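PT: before anyone asks, these are the final sequences, not the draft ones from last week. 282 residues across everything. Please model them as a single complex and drop the result in this thread when it's through.
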Amino acid sequence: MPSIALPPGQPFSLDQTLGCGQVFRWERSPDGTWLGIVDNHVIRIRQEGTRLRFRGAPEEFIRRYFSLDIDLLPLLSSIDNDPVIHRAIGQCNGLRLVRQLPWECTVSYICSTNSNIPTIRRRIGLLAERFGTRIQSGGQTFFTFPEPSCISCKGHEGLTICKLGYRQPYVYGTSCTVTDVRSWEKKIRRLPYEDARKELMKLQGVGPKAADCILLFAFQKYDAFPVDVWIRRILKEQYLPDLPTDAPLTTREYDRIRKFAKEQFGEYCGWAQEYLYAARIL
DNA sequence: GACCAGGAAGAGT
DNA sequence: ACTCTTCATGGT
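LR: through. Structure below.
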């Protein structure tokens, strides 16, 4: 089994990284081995101290997916600007943002609205089972995440068994809009954060929160700061006590929070968001 | 059964 | 440009 030696001074925690809620198609077995489907790879990976043992994809793919090329300590010290984020960083030692595939990430966060993580995971799994390509690995069957044309091929009723609820027409509509994933991806990647955000929000089912998640998790726009109910709660408790409690989050409040986060944490505020989110339960 | 979950669209104003 | 309502599903 191939392995990667993590260099000293380059913190990485597989459990923090895959367990923090940024990805939906990874599962941890009791012995600590994670199994995930990324693109057309069925990856099995475990961490033994400062060594990663893996199967199912080339080493370079693993390094890139887990952002092992990023020098984490300077990045963290750039956001480590107050006691609250300091504690979150301490609690989530070795958490890294991964580089998700844009199309899968987009559909995932369309499916995420007003839902909890287990439900989102189930929807993504159903989409793959229904429309993805079969992969055999280790005597088991898995499915890739489907291309847009595969999702839309049977009309929007074909999606019903995936139990997307009111998100079904959004996934269908967006699949019809993004016919050419490669050029779509290239177009978004080329744009700076604010422009890319506007472009993504043209897609059905993609609002401010989903757009920010897609930009942060799939396009490495690290100045994106997704605001969900948890982040809003944390910011109200720890930073902005005058935020309204339970009224629906308006565009103006969302933008105020984004602006605050950028000023408080800097150009890597998206990483701060993920540390705060991951530490929310602790 | 009420309430919540990594919100967004559409109508009405 | 703001406010209000509705949306489908599963877990607690």
